[in-house]
Amino acid sequence: RAGNPPPRIYETASGMLNAIGLQNVAVEAFIRDKLPFLRGLKGPKILVNLAGESVAEYVELARRLDGVPGIDGFAANSSCPNCDHGGMEFGVDPALTREVVRKVRRVTTRFLMPKLSPNVTDVTAIAKAAADGGADALSLVNTLVGIAVDAKRRTPRISTVKGGLSGPAIKPVALRTVWQVHRA
Asked: What is the pLDDT, as a whole number, of residue 58?
């Protein structure tokens, strides 16, 4: 994926708005060029971010990476708010979330943590679907959808208009999400 065109990052008063667009080098280049460096790091676990434009792509990535040494698990990203395809569409529907997790789980025994979105009506339904699909853990809060505007020019600050807000501004939302899912 080439990712989104620049500008794709804008600093806000209490965080950052980004629209990177899941830019990456693809699986073969990751294994060949990026993973050797990551394996050399002592201490951190290596979780590979899986993102696809179809359930089959999530499964194929997990299948391809499952036997590769040095990978501790997967973060199934079904919550990226700044992609036209392979972003949030899988993470806003409990049935699709369950299907992605269940089918990825079938091809790997490695740690599996779906990355969920706070940009849904009922995060507890999505979390339950991910758990029912076989998730080992949940990453409950990806970024919040936001927009930054240059008031003088009346134009968006990033090329895609909307992007994902992260940083201190979203902590209260993250805490609320953890509380809701824990209670459910």
From this structure: 94
H-run or E-run covering 63: helix 55-66
Catalytic residue list contains 83: no
Q: How many helices (H) and strands (E) does the chain have?
A: 6, 9
Whether pLDDT at 20 is above 70: yes
Alpha-carbon distance of 1 to 81, in angstroms, equals 15
Catalytic residue among 71, 80, 101, 127: 80
31 token code pair:
């294994």
pLDDT of residue 81: 59
Q: How confident is the model at residue 174 (pLDDT cuts 50, 70, 90)?
A: very high
Strand-by-strand arrangement of the 144-147 sheet: 9-12, 15-18, 162-166, 144-147
User: Distance between CA atoms of 58 and 109, rounded to whole angstroms?
Assistant: 15
* Tokens standing for residue 183: 């209670």
Contact 166, 18 (CB under 8 A): yes
